[in-house]
Design goal:
Oligomer: single chain
Shape: globular
Helix content: 25-40%
Strand content: 15-25%
Strand order of the largest sheet: 18-19-17-16-22-23-24
Number of helices: 18
Largest sheet: 7 strands, mixed
Distance between the termini: 61 Å
Length: about 500
C-alpha cells in the first residue's frame, strides 16, 4: 500500500497544501489567498480564525483533488513564514489578529536595544540581530500599546505552530522557528527566563509552549480538525519547521556544499554550518532542522513580494493583455522584460516596500527614470533590483564561508527562466533549481515521513524525496554589466540611507 504525506505551508499572503508520495512526487496541491489587513502604515496582519478556515479548506481541497484514500495519509507537518506573532487567548480563542513577518510597527525597539546595550548582551545567547518583526519586538509593542492583550495570552505561537495547534489541540513550539525569534537561547537550545527578562518579558515565560523537534511526533489530528480538513482523526502530526528550513531541506541542503537562496515574500539567503558565526558579520544564526547544524542566514523583506505588488499596482493594462493572450500576468511581464537587454536600462529599483536589508523605515524607489523609459524598462528594473537585494546578502555569506559549489534557488523566481538567469548572472555562480512545485510543503512532507517511521532521518528522506531540476550557468558578459549596475545600486541605497526617517 502506498503511503502519502501532507505538507501545509502558510506564507505571508497565501495558504497552501500539497500531498506527496514517499518518493517525493507531488500528487496534488491547493492554494488560497489569505487577506492581509493593513489598518495603518507599517501594520500587516491577518484574522487568525479566517486563516485556520482557509487552511482547513485548502487541505480538504488537496485531498479531494488527489483522489487518494485519506486513510493512506501517513503523516502531516506544517511550515510558515517565521517571525511575526500569533497569540492564543486564555479564553481558548485567537487573541487579536495574527501579525505577519512584513510588519514594521515595532521598529523603535531594536533601535533602542542597540543603543542601550541590550542587543550586545543577548547576542551571546541568541546569536542573532534583533528585528522589528520578531516576537520580542512585537510583544514589547503590544505590552506598551495593548497591555490587556498580553494579560489574556495563554500561548505565544509562530504561524505554523498555531496551525498545528488547531490540527491537534496540543500546544508545541517547534525549535527551528523559535530559534529565529530571539525568544530562545541558541546556546542551550532552551527557553531562558533571564533572556526574556532582558526584553522585559519574563512574565510571559509560561506562555511559551513545550519545545519539539522538526521531525518529532507531537500530536495527532483531532476529531474536530478531521471533520474540517478530511485528514483522518489520529493521523500523526510532526513538528514541522520554519519555512527557510523546510525549503532548504527540500533543496537537499544536508551538508555545507551549497548556498540556498529563496526569493519569496522575504529574501532568504542561507547555508548550514556546525559552527555559528559569532562576529556579528551575518544577521542570523538559528538552529537547523538537522541536529548539530546551525542555519547561517541573511534575510530581509525585499524579495518577490515587491514584484507582485508592482504588477498588481501598476500593470492593470498588462494584466488585461495577458488574459486576452491566455498568459499568466507574470509570464507576460517576463515577455516585456526580455525585450530589454541588461545594458539598455539603468533604472535602479530599491525593493524596500517593507523595509530595506537593514532599515525597516526604508521605502521602495524607482530611481533614474526619464522620458524614453517604458513599462518594459521598469519591469526589468524590478526584476534586477530584487536580485541585487539578494546579492547584498549573498556577499556577506560568502565573506564568511568562502566559495560555494552552486546556488540552490527557490521561490516564485524559479517559475521564470528569465528571472532565474538574471539571478545567475548577478551572482556569477551556477544556479540549480529543484523539480517540485511546492518546496516548503515538500520539506514538511519529509518531516512527516520521518515522524511516521518511513525514513530514519531527514538526510535519508532527502535521498529519496528530493529531485534536482534545471541548472543555469552564468553569462560572464552580462555579469560584467550587472557588476557595474550593482555598484550603482549600493551607492544609491547608501546615499538614501539617512533620508528614510524623514518620510
Amino acid at each position: 500500500m502506498k503511503t502519502y504525506f501532507l505538507g501545509i505551508d502558510n506564507g505571508g499572503t497565501v495558504s497552501k497544501a500539497a500531498l506527496f508520495d514517499e518518493k517525493g512526487t507531488q500528487i496534488a496541491k491547493a492554494v488560497a489567498s489569505v487577506p492581509m489587513l493593513t489598518p495603518q502604515a507599517g501594520f500587516t496582519e491577518r484574522d487568525m480564525e479566517q486563516l485556520w478556515t482557509v487552511t482547513a479548506n485548502v487541505v480538504a481541497n488537496t485531498i479531494l483533488k488527489s483522489k487518494v484514500n485519506p486513510s493512506h495519509i501517513g503523516g502531516v507537518a506544517c511550515t510558515g513564514h517565521g517571525k511575526g506573532l500569533y497569540l492564543w487567548g486564555k479564553d481558548d480563542a485567537p487573541n487579536g489578529n495574527g501579525i505577519i513577518s512584513t510588519d514594521t510597527r515595532a521598529w523603535e525597539y531594536p533601535k533602542k536595544w542597540a543603543e542601550d546595550g541590550t542587543a550586545d548582551r543577548i547576542f551571546e545567547k541568541t546569536f542573532q540581530s534583533i528585528l522589528a518583526c520578531q516576537p520580542v519586538s512585537l510583544l514589547n509593542w503590544i505590552k506598551d500599546h495593548e497591555p490587556k492583550r498580553l494579560e489574556q495570552t495563554k500561548w505565544i505561537f509562530e504561524v505554523k505552530d498555531y496551525i498545528r495547534f488547531r490540527l491537534t489541540g496540543t500546544a508545541s513550539a517547534e525549535i527551528t522557528d523559535y530559534s529565529g525569534s530571539n525568544l530562545l537561547n541558541c546556546a542551550t537550545k532552551r527557553f531562558d527566563k533571564d533572556l526574556l527578562g532582558e526584553f522585559g518579558l519574563r512574565d510571559l515565560y509560561e506562555a511559551l509552549p513545550p519545545l519539539v523537534g522538526s521531525a518529532e511526533l507531537c500530536g495527532t489530528v483531532s476529531k474536530e480538525a478531521a471533520a474540517l480538513t478530511g485528514i483522518p482523526e489520529g493521523t500523526p502530526v510532526a513538528g514541522g519547521m520554519f519555512d527557510i528550513d523546510a525549503c532548504a531541506i527540500a533543496m537537499n541542503i544536508v551538508d555545507e556544499s551549497n548556498i540556498a537562496v529563496i526569493a519569496g515574500t522575504w529574501s532568504i539567503n542561507e547555508y548550514i554550518s556546525k559552527q555559528p558565526v559569532l562576529d556579528h558579520s551575518v544577521m542570523m544564526n538559528s538552529l537547523y532542522c538537522m541536529d548539530d547544524y546551525y542555519l547561517i542566514e541573511e534575510s530581509s523583506p525585499t524579495s518577490a513580494s515587491n514584484h507582485a505588488w508592482f504588477v498588481d499596482m501598476f500593470l492593470a493594462e498588462e494584466r488585461i493583455a495577458a488574459e486576452k493572450a491566455g498568459m499568466h500576468p507574470y509570464a507576460y511581464c517576463d515577455q516585456l522584460a526580455s525585450g530589454v537587454a541588461p545594458q539598455d536600462q539603468h533604472i535602479m529599483f530599491l525593493p524596500y516596500l517593507y523595509g530595506s536589508n537593514y532599515d525597516p523605515q526604508a521605502k521602495a524607489s524607482l530611481i533614474g527614470l526619464d522620458s524614453h523609459h517604458t513599462r518594459a524598462h521598469m519591469v526589468r528594473a524590478v526584476l534586477e533590483g530584487i536580485a541585487f537585494g539578494h546579492k547584498v546578502h549573498l556577499n556577506r555569506l560568502l565573506a564568511n564561508r568562502g566559495s560555494t559549489d552552486a546556488i540552490r534557488l527557490a521561490g516564485g523566481v524559479v517559475a521564470s527562466d528569465l528571472w532565474t538567469q538574471i539571478f545567475c548572472d548577478v551572482f556569477a555562480l551556477p544556479v540549480q533549481t529543484i523539480d517540485t512545485g511546492e518546496l516548503g510543503a515538500l520539506g514538511c512532507a519529509m518531516a512527516a515521513a520521518v515522524a511516521a517511521g518511513t525514513y530514519r532521518d531527514l538526510r535519508e528522506a532527502a535521498r529519496h524525496m528530493v529531485h534536482m531540476g534545471k541548472t543555469f550557468e552564468p553569462n560572464i558578459c552580462d555579469h560584467a554589466i550587472y557588476n557595474d549596475k550593482f555598484a550603482l545600486y549600493e551607492s544609491v541605497s547608501a546615499a538614501l540611507s539617512d533620508q528614510w526617517k524623514r518620510f
